[in-house]
Write a structure and sequence with these properties.
globular; alpha+beta
Length: 169
């Protein structure tokens, strides 16, 4: 951890937890399906997959593209997420990035990680947002880190729970 990208209290990650009333397999199935990824979004930030028929996530280093929308970023943009952790029914993480003109994916330095734990009434889901590797130039471009709050993470988990528990997934 460097002081360049830490918040005032020295933290470079935040997290939220929630019990979802579904099995780890059901929760993981939604998280590993780029076509349903937008169901984890409490706003209209994640719009949908860039691929017409996206394949489920099955391996580390796999990339899935998402259409995004944020007025602070000028409207529509694309993110290409590289899977960094994949433990079926237990954990999944990805590092968002953008494609360069030659097709290379350059990560922004942050990642999203979901850890799943079976509990008596479903699955405890922990969502972590970590920006420890985000370069200072990127932090300044974004307008500071974290780019989202713990409250936002909690709303994201509520969206995930609503999708899985309603059978929408």
């Amino acid at each position: 951890m460097t002081s360049d990208n830490a918040t005032m209290n020295g933290t470079t990650s935040i997290f939220a937890e929630r019990t979802v009333h579904a099995s780890p397999q059901e929760v993981f199935a939604l998280l590993a399906d780029p076509a349903r990824h937008h169901l984890t979004e409490p706003r209209d930030w994640v719009r949908g997959s860039l691929e017409g028929q996206p394949v489920p996530i099955t391996e580390v280093d796999q990339v899935f593209g998402m259409e995004m929308f944020n007025t602070h970023r000028g409207g529509r943009y694309e993110m290409h997420n590289r899977i960094t952790v994949l433990e079926p029914d237990r954990a999944i993480a990805w590092a968002p990035g953008q494609r360069t003109p030659d097709g290379e994916i350059v990560a922004g330095g942050w990642f999203w990680r979901y850890d799943l734990e079976s509990v008596a009434d479903g699955t405890r889901v922990r969502l972590t947002y970590d920006w420890a590797e985000t370069p200072l130039e990127t932090i300044e471009l974004i307008g500071g880190m974290p780019a989202v709050s713990e409250r936002y993470l909690g709303k994201s988990l509520a969206s995930l729970a609503a999708a899985v528990e309603s059978g929408e997934s």
